Model the fold of this input.
Amino acid sequence: MEPTPRLYAVVGPTGTGKSEFAQQLAERFDGVVLSADALQVYRELNIGTAKLTEEERRVPHFGLDLLSVSQPYSAALYQEYARGVIDEHLTQGQSVVVCGGTGLYVRAALDKFDFSAGEQEGNQLRAHYEALAAEQGDDALYRLLEERDPVSAALIHPHNVRRVIRALELCGQGESYAEGTAGFKSFQSYYPVVTWLGLRKEREALYHDLEARVDAMLKVGLIDEVRMLREKGLAESLTARQAIGYKELMSWLDDECSYEDAVAAIKQNTRRYAKRQMTFFNADPRIQWRDIEVTSNLESDGSETPARIEAA
Done:
């Protein structure tokens, strides 16, 4: 008897082994992996996003290398793409493991979210604010949002330029980012998900592993990847300019800081990002959290493993 195709979610902060765990899960349940990572969709961002190489992918992966950093993309476009992948594979009898640390992408794929028309593609307002950010800096853009929509500004980190621009876009269209994101608290599923599994580590261990991973990325060619972006004229794209690991090394290459300071900033920003991810996912009561002690051996701590997940 053929197994029933099912849908799984593997989430959590960066550096907890989600990619490997998702592969194990997909292998066990005859499925595919759908990445829910806002940076791994870009072809040029590989080492710095911890994207699995083609050789490391033991099952079919989707949501990777969809476009260039020079092209506009959004959670709404990802939602359309992701649901197409999910529907196609469930219909074909294959399970789908949605895996990622971009909370908005995970929920855009699996929950009931409606995006306004302006989110679907680039527009003149977006181009205007992107140019403003490039000319006057991130802080000036955030102050503008504080003036026009203080309620929405209070929900967004000042250096999350992409989201600040989105909030300003909505404000210019007579809408509110704060009102539009109110659905974050409702957790209304669009699909029946068998298991929402969250992987986490004790904070000090996670931070130690993240710093070690940054060192490893630098050793295997992250600097060359950043130089490649500059050579291709892609370094000034909004995506590359804001991606952790890329923006700090670009500052070093532009003689704006020392190499040591750039590496320290990458590690600090990575730690802060992991903390924000945990804050986001901790708000979701559906997630079953499992502590991972050793990333390279997910079964070593007796936590949930693909072999232990029973079909519901």
